[in-house]
Amino acid sequence: MIADILRRMAMRDSLSVVAFIFVFSCSFGVAAQTEPDIAAIRLPTGFTIEIWSDEVPNARSMTLGANGTVFVSTRRDGRVYALVPRSGAKPTVLTLAEKLKMPNGIAFYDGDLYVAENHRIIRYNDIEANFDEIPKPEVVIDSLPTESHHGWRYIDFGPDGKLYISIGAPCNLCERDGFANISRMNADGSGQEIVAQGVRNSVGFAWQPLSGELWFTDNGRDMLGDDVPPGELNHAPRIGMHFGFPYCHGGDIADPEFGAQRGCQEFAVPAQKLDAHVAPLGMLFYSGDMFPDEYTGQVFIAEHGSWNRSAKVGYRVSLVRMVRGEAAGYEVFADGWLQGEEAAGRPVDLLVLEDGSMLVSDDKNGIVYRISYSRPLDEGVALLPDERDAEHVVMESPAK
Question: Beta strands of 291-376 (E only): which ranges?
């Protein structure tokens, strides 16, 4: 009965579903979830994971400062943190800002820290030189939509020096002007323009190092079943491409409500289909020099984990194999945050440090993990995909 209620409520807007779940949980209680167990996280041979910091409640997006500072945003917590590395010890954690409105988006550019709240973008000038006395932020732009559903922004600077921002659809499924896109603007907030349309809710994008072209994750709509539609990794080599929402999902699935208005053939198809409901968020092209050569230029994705599915999926870091600039396969890189049906952690974002190791944020536990690699003593060459540990599961990739 409850499943039927949720399905009817969410056909147009899943905000009602969230409210229902909240009331239901408060009334009847929700079973406590398990705590993270580092030993349970599975990685390919030679890789290790450690807790780099456990002092960042609701750790979300990350960006790297010029002096090695790791800046971490939050969503529910309303704070922004600076994690200052210390040799041989966990980083020093500083609170830079608090009482912000969903400050999920964060980017470092030309010495300044940019933070995207729900309704605006602010900038902390020359931030790494002012930790003793945090400067008052300057408002870059304050005309962003104020709807809270999918209103946690993701931002980053592209190779063109422009600030990119995702504007998620304010619904599970709807047709609204000014939403469901990725836009860009000058660093001072001027010249805003839409780069990609039909993007339901992207919370992660990056640029392929060689081509400089934009790639991004996108979260598919809910309430079409356990295995539909797929999550997406998309490629936008030019401005103005449309990726289908709300008319078409995954490149070939016409929406039951909006699909009659426009055909799937009108839209760009995903570069790589991901498993349905895994909630792909932060992504990056690996550019460090610590991991084996086979990982250079490959796409890592933080999968936050499902809610709209009878059996949970995601809660892991996946890997999309790139061959000659195109996605050629999809597999698990790190998992173990899902224990049965209990979520022990929820990966959100990824960041490569100067030494080539990779950080993973976990907003459920307020943890930032560090994944590093050491060549096994009996390993003479880099491991190929079919030579790695048997526990490293390769997924059957959905059709592209």
Answer: 299-303, 316-323, 326-334, 338-339, 342-343, 347-352, 358-362, 367-373
- Which pLDDT belongs to residue 376? 79
Residue 293, judged by CB atoms within 10 A of its CB (0-12, 13-18, 19+), counts as exposed
pTM score, whole prediction: 0.88
Q: Which amino acid belongs to residue 55? A: E
How far is residue 54's CA from residue 59's CA, in Å, rounded to a whole number?
9
What gap in Å lies between CA 179 and CA 199, rounded to an integer?
Answer: 8
- Give the C-alpha separation, 296 to 289, whole Å: 8
pLDDT in tens, 311-369: 999 999 999 999 999 999 999 999 999 999 999 999 999 999 999 999 999 999 999 99
31-387 has which fold?
Answer: Neuraminidase (2.120.10)
Helix (H) or strand (E) holding 85: strand 80-86
Alpha helices (H) along the chain: 2-10, 15-28
Residue 320 · residue 234 · CB < 8 Å: no
Q: Under a CB-based contact definition with an 8 Å cutoff, are residues 242 and 195 in contact?
A: no
Pairing of β 193-197 and β 241-242: parallel
Q: How far apart are CA 145 and CA 174, in angstroms?
A: 15
Query: For tokens 């290790």, what's the residue?
Result: 48
Residues 283/205, Cβ–Cβ less than 8 Å:
yes
d(CA 337, CA 318): 13
| Contacts by residues 237-240 (CB-CB < 8 Å, ≥ 24 positions apart) | 237/211, 237/213, 239/193, 239/195, 239/196, 240/194, 240/195, 240/196, 240/197
Q: CB of 332 within 8 A of CB of 302?
A: no
CA distances from 51 to 59, 200, 356, 359, 364 (A): 13, 33, 16, 9, 14
